[in-house]
Design a protein that fits this description.
alpha/beta; 15% strand; 8 helices; 42% helix; globular; two-stranded parallel sheet
Amino acid sequence: MLFLRSLVFTVFMLVSVVIYAIGVLFSPLLPAAWREAIPPAWANLALGALRIICKLDYRVEGVENIPAQVGVAFWKHQSMWETVAQIVVFPRQCWVLKKSLMSIPFVGWALRFYQPIAIDRGAGRRAVEQVIEQGRERLAAGRWVMIFPEGTRMPPGTTRRYGMSGILLAEKTGRPIVPVAHNAGDFWRRNGILKRPGMIVVRIGEPVYTNGRPLEVVAREIQNWIEAQMRDISPDYAGTFLATNGNRRRSTKNRVNGDTRCGD
């Protein structure tokens, strides 16, 4: 039954995202406010279907920590769930994502209407500059910039060193960074079809400002807060640090120049 429910939801999600994407492609014919309402409408529909079909719901703690001033949101990345949930948890936004996603028929074409920051993660310093340059424009236009600083979906109980592009963007614009922890990976594993019933907890932290501090210190403060929340809301969470070939200890200069992790 668990597999069947999960399969039904997966099919529903795929069909619905294509239908809504087609709607976005025709949205230039609609008022701008209607176009902006399409992603939250789809996300609420998907999360509602997840609750009904798979008995998987969520609650958000710390909404009052989202400031009126737009900034950069750092989300823990464990599953596909948070890519949907962030659309309804935060106000008007854009996403830092892999450039390859823009080529997906219908969905990728629709994403272009919301000015994502689509980077080539192998571009090194140029990708960092792109996040800063385009991120500055998106912030000025009143959009939150959503980033997965770990750069890829991490199995529950693990983490890796955070990318620096989002922190650089916050430093250069004076905008806040808002950390977000959640335990979606306990119920919806990365690359997995099963969605286990339960209650996902989303915890939003207080805004963090760089205030001229070393970037490494800011990154460590944010990561420590998120990992502490993960240990609290996910009982089996160990917070294991995973080192990869592209994620070993490096100097701050090298990390700023080449660390472009943005999520998948």
